[in-house]
Amino acid sequence: MKELKTQTLHEYFECLTIKPMRQTELVALLNEITIGETCFFRSQPQLDAMRTIIIPKVLVAKAKFPLRRLRIWSAGCSTGEEPYTLSMLPLEEAARRLKDWTIEILATDLNERSLAHAKNAIYGSYSTRNLTPYYRQKYFMAVGEQLQVQPAARNSITFSRLNLSDDARMTFMKSLDVVFCCNVLIYFDLVSKRRVIQHFYNNLLPHGYLFLRHSESLYGVNDDFRLVHLPGATAYIKGERTQAGKQDT
Ligand SMILES: C[S@@+](CC[C@H](N)C(=O)[O-])C[C@H]1O[C@@H](n2cnc3c(N)ncnc32)[C@H](O)[C@@H]1O
Question: Global pTM?
Answer without folding.
Answer: 0.92
